[in-house]
Design goal:
heterodimer, A: 4 helices, about 0% strand, B: mainly alpha, two-stranded antiparallel ribbon, about 75% helix, globular
Chain lengths: ~150, ~500
């Protein structure tokens, strides 16, 4: 990749913008098209394009596979944790009214935002994990594998 | 507007812990799975998994106690009332299946700790237990939910984790990968068919809540869309339930999966699918609909009979104990289908009680097979010759399980076959009673082959075996003894099955 100067410079510029756009899609999901799934995929694209241009080792140094596992689990925990929070306040599972009992509409708003964040985190992790799994695959099977 | 400006809390009656039980039933294993991955400490994975499974077992017992009298619990997810919101609905039928699934899961997990060390490398254990819990979550969710689309979502959760769990057998035998891939293709086709059926239902009725669906379907029973939906759903679930011609994925998947996975799946996965079949046939589509389209005479009964004989005969010709057990599973599913085919209260009772009894029997047998894998590293009859002397406990448990499979009096298998034969007599179908007994004789043959190998053959030279460790033997013996226990203490299983059958047959009124 040493020759592709333009690719490298543009990628470095783009990655930051992609992350920013992902966060925009994430947190504007309730006003405009978007939400956790889309934002997660866009966020992962930032890592994937970095990996494609600067090799897998480089991106793994930034976002090591063990961290990817944790991120995947963390998102689900954020999602389920929101639901469990409302259990403690005597509401049904995932009843966001519990987040702001004085003002259930605000509670609903905040609840969906947190839950979508959980979705975004997990989708980012899963997309990167899928990329790692495919990119790290050995080009061919060795004889003893059969 | 008043609520938007006031600072007083909106009136709300707080739910107590016992109100939350239906949600916690699924939630505890679901949260435990990512939690153990997040913590990432290998030594904590098994304790977390075991505690989560045990907690869901306790919850399922509490739920069953509350609904066995015929009452029902409805839980609204997120506070959204059905039919718009997702509803969890617990009645005798699914509480009984919940108990079966969480009980088998807990015993198999206790057993898995020792067995897994021999079959799967240590570095995979955290993820293995996480997937195991996700599979449990999916199975419990499918059973507890009262929302047709939610069934599909949980079905996929359990299926996807099952594919990976089966593939973990590749450390012992590479063929696990093709078995898992095969199952992935077949399972995905099944799930697709199922969701197409749900789509048709939604098109015709505009709702996904089962109770609501039942009401609206009864108004348009002749609609072609509804009938197409039914066909898609039966075939889709049929693939998951391994109904006879759709069972081809099952023998390989059960044979090559790691032993705890085989035991867990054999005891729960197909049973869950049979439950879904019952739920859709009798609660969503109603018995009148089944009578209209004659599916029982035309499809269910013939294939049930073929399964009872063809799969039993092929079980006899297997040379591998796990493969023999897998084929016998297909045959035993035939009995459950036959119970549905009898289309009577006793018939359904037989199906549901056999679901439970066969679940514990097969789990015990596969756990025994896992002990053989631990001891000699293989399950082919060739390697198991004469192990009755060196592995007395495992072999004794296998014999008990085998007896229950045949239906010897005093074992759980006898109870369910007895009820099934009773159902045949009730309908006046004497021929069927004869066929049930005849197919049991084939079961005697294949179980005898196993006993002969274990006790009467001379050990193969070069095979040295030691009894499996206590951590595996205790759960195995517990499971084997429970098949005897439920052979005598029939009041628990029988009353639960009867309540479940009454609930299913009372149609949509049973859901309200």
């Amino acid at each position: 990749m040493r020759h592709h100067l333009i690719l490298r410079v543009i990628t470095k510029l783009l990655v930051g913008t992609i992350f920013l756009f992902a966060l925009y899609v994430q947190f504007h999901g309730d006003y405009s098209p978007g939400g956790g799934f889309q934002a997660g995929v866009i966020m992962a694209v930032g890592f994937i394009i970095y990996g494609i241009v600067f090799t897998l080792e480089k991106v793994k140094a930034v976002f090591p596979p063990w961290l990817v596992h944790k991120v995947v689990a963390l998102g689900v925990l954020i999602y389920a944790g929101t639901g469990i929070y409302s259990l403690f306040y005597g509401y049904g599972y995932l009843d966001y009214a519990a987040i702001d009992p004085h003002h259930p509409v605000h509670g609903q708003h905040l609840g969906i935002l947190i839950v979508e964040l959980g979705v975004g985190v997990t989708v980012t992790g899963v997309m990167v994990a899928v990329y790692y799994a495919f990119a790290a695959r050995a080009p061919s099977l060795s004889d003893e594998d059969w | 507007m008043a609520s938007a400006t006031s600072s007083e809390p909106v009136h709300h009656i707080a739910l107590t812990l016992s109100d939350q039980l239906p949600a916690l039933q699924v939630l505890i294993p679901f949260v435990a799975a990512p939690l153990m991955v997040f913590i990432g400490v290998r030594s904590l994975a098994w304790p977390i998994a075991f505690l989560a499974s045990l907690a869901s077992l306790v919850i399922s017992v509490l739920l069953l106690q509350r609904v066995i009298g015929g009452s029902e619990i409805s839980y609204h997810m997120g506070g959204w009332a059905p039919p718009l919101g997702i509803e969890y609905r617990v009645d005798a039928a699914n509480a009984f299946v919940l108990l079966l699934i969480s009980a088998i899961s807990s015993v198999v997990l206790a057993y898995a700790r020792g067995s897994l060390k021999a079959e799967v490398p240590e570095k995979n254990h955290t993820l293995f237990y996480a997937l195991y819990l996700l599979c449990l979550t999916g199975l419990l969710g499918v059973v507890i939910t009262g929302d047709a689309f939610n069934v599909f979502v949980f079905l996929e959760i359990s299926s996807l984790s099952t594919y990976v769990l089966i593939a973990q057998g590749s450390y012992r035998d590479k063929r696990a990968l093709t078995a898992s891939y095969n199952y992935l293709i077949m399972g995905t086709i099944g799930a697709t068919f199922f969701v197409i059926g749900i789509g048709f239902l939604y098109m015709a009725t505009g709702t996904l809540n089962m109770a609501d669906l039942a009401e609206r379907i009864s108004e348009q029973r002749d609609s072609r869309t509804i009938r197409a939906a039914f066909a898609f759903i039966v075939v889709g679930i049929g693939l998951k339930a391994a109904i006879y011609p759709l069972h081809l994925w099952l023998p390989n998947a059960y044979t090559y999966a790691p032993s705890p996975v085989s035991a867990f799946l054999a005891g729960t996965a197909t049973k869950m699918a049979i439950y879904v079949l019952l739920r859709f046939m009798f609660t969503v589509f109603q018995p009148e609909f089944l009578a209209d389209i004659k599916i029982l005479e035309a499809v269910i009964i013939p294939f049930a009979l073929i399964a009872m004989f063809a799969a039993s005969i092929s079980a006899f010709y297997q040379r591998d104990i796990k493969r023999m057990l897998a084929h016998s599973s297909v045959a035993q599913l035939g009995y459950m289908l036959l119970g549905i085919g009898f289309f009577s209260h006793t018939g359904l009772t037989a199906t549901i009680i056999h679901l439970f009894n066969h679940g514990i029997t097969k789990a015990a047998l596969f756990m025994g097979a896992g002990c053989f894998v631990f001891a000699v590293g293989a399950t082919s009859y060739e390697k198991l010759k004469g192990l009755g002397k060196t592995m007395p406990w495992t072999s004794a448990a296998m014999v008990i399980g085998g007896m229950s499979l045949v239906g010897i009096p005093g074992t759980a298998g006898f109870v369910s076959k007895w009820v099934l034969v009773q159902a045949a007599f009730e309908n006046g179908w004497w021929g069927f009673a004869f066929l049930i007994v005849l197919s049991s004789i084939i079961a005697v043959a294949y179980v005898w082959r196993m006993i002969e190998t274990l006790y009467l053959s001379a050990p193969t030279e070069g095979v040295t075996a030691k009894e499996a460790p206590l951590s595996m033997l205790i759960p195995l013996c517990l499971m084997a003894l429970s098949t005897i226990y439920f052979g005598f203490a029939t009041d628990i299983t029988l009353s639960a099955s009867k309540a479940a059958a009454s609930g299913l047959l009372s149609g949509s009124s049973g859901l309200h």
